[in-house]
Design a protein that fits this description.
Two copies of one chain form a homodimer.
Chain A lengths: L1 E7 L10 H9 L2 E5 H7 L7 E5 L4 H13 L4 E5 L9 H8 L5 E6 L4 H9 E2 L5 E5 L7 H13 L3 E5 L9 H9 L8 E6 L7 E6 H4 L8 E5 L5 E3 L2 E3 L9 H7 L3
Parallel strand pairs in A: 1-4, 1-5, 2-3, 2-4, 6-13, 7-8
Antiparallel strand pairs in A: 8-11, 9-10, 9-11, 12-13
Helix pairs in contact in A: 3-4
Chain lengths: 254, 254
Amino acid sequence: MSRIYAVGIGPGGQEYMTQEAFQVLKQVDIIAGYTVYVDLIRERYPDKAFFTTPMKKEIERCRWAVERAREGQSVAMICSGDAGVYGMAGLLFELAQQYDDMEVEVVSGITAAISGAAVLGAPIGHDFCLISLSDLLTPWELIEKRLRCAGEGDFAICLYNPRSKKRDDYLRKACDILLRYKAPETVCGWVRNIGREGEEYRVLTLGELGAEPIDMFTTVFIGSATTRVMNGRMITPRGYEKHEDTYFRRNDGE
Amino acid sequence: MSRIYAVGIGPGGQEYMTQEAFQVLKQVDIIAGYTVYVDLIRERYPDKAFFTTPMKKEIERCRWAVERAREGQSVAMICSGDAGVYGMAGLLFELAQQYDDMEVEVVSGITAAISGAAVLGAPIGHDFCLISLSDLLTPWELIEKRLRCAGEGDFAICLYNPRSKKRDDYLRKACDILLRYKAPETVCGWVRNIGREGEEYRVLTLGELGAEPIDMFTTVFIGSATTRVMNGRMITPRGYEKHEDTYFRRNDGE
């Protein structure tokens, strides 16, 4: 039985990796991944072989890694965030099933919806949807439909890939769709360079969000009807306060 | 400035905690939390003070912790999974804003949608919704509406709190709603005791899911129209294969 590891490294810094991920990377022979992510961790593993390919070369990268694993080498494919959320885990399973005896082991990581939420406060403290605005692999019509359904269901929403050079107006288009269902005052937020140098965030309204200077290193959060600003942070309450009015009033000084 | 930490410990085992979470818990004076979760980590920190309360005592627990932090003690409130996903982070922000100088720092953890997905394969490899079936704090009508919208948008769906003693038929009701939008053959899966002793999982269809013997320690996944079974695992592809037909065909032996 051959095995390949799909490892989520979280937002980048070693402190955000799980100890399981750290141990798996320490023990493998080869670490493969997208050039930018491998560069984030390369210095921590000076004795490893690395294999990197640029974006849009994911299949070649995964095929190469699966072939090395079949030869008996110990290989980890790293992904930023979690390998199972818009990561390489699914593709590795697809490639692995072409062989008799290839197993994929997914090692969890902190995806940007989680790490970005921690920076903003608690924007996804209740039911939420995660939607990617990238139409490289998904028809834009399906993305629009999911935005409409997420808006109609009053979900909190986390948007990945909110903008790129070729897709300059997708965030504005998404906001326009959501404004059919959500009030312009709906609390929103974004985080750039989560857990990395230059980390910044802003809390704002859905009415303002579409015009923000947001890039591909930014994760966007759109509140539900219950989302509030508290001390400058974005909070979607789970609902305890509704059931404990007396308790909260007493402590508000009433 | 006083500070309190909201720390996600992941599914339980130390290897699934981030190194940041491990360090924060090592450095605080007091670890507070739900009795069951504190018992998962108590042995790792023999020199700490612990404060635990049972379920439905979340406000008292958080209030107590915030008051200790105000007195200058170093306090971490732990949550299973991530503190920002149906956890205590939001409640701590609500309580902290009643004081002038209280800061909440959220330390990310692996939520069950991520850790459960790793066990099943890659069920949330594309856009997905996270919905809790608990109506303790949320009206059932809103839960139903979100299920309908998630179904209509063809999201992959992860369900938290799929069943409890008092809510014996909620998973069946949820499946009945989703069957209006999704085919009975839709690939589904569940994972029980993720990352703990007795971990088990099953891959099955939406038509079968409602009758499964699922408890409150189980996380449920419902596929989108593209979700497939591969080598017994549940995979929602990101869509690479559609764009690389030649590549995949060649490697299928054609």
